[in-house]
Amino acid sequence: MLFDKEPSADHKGTMNHICLVVNDVAASGKILQDRRLPEGFKVPTQMKTGINRKRQINYYDGDGTRIEIMDSKTIDGLPVPSSDASPPKLVK
User: pTM of this prediction?
Assistant: First the structure.
């Protein structure tokens, strides 16, 4: 993830995360909803549309690391624009 300053410890687990891309996030969410979460996992978020116009559900493991389930396509079928963030700085 790109950032200007080092994130706090509680934000590192959400910024640096695992993303599983699926064809239908609603169907995947339904399957997962019927399963018991392991002890220590937070309740997942409701399905929402991210800034990239793709639907997603976020799960969090016992350490607070985010596991994102995201649709492979945008809600409107248009391509996602490139990031306007500055390129990462090379650290030597």
Answer: 0.74
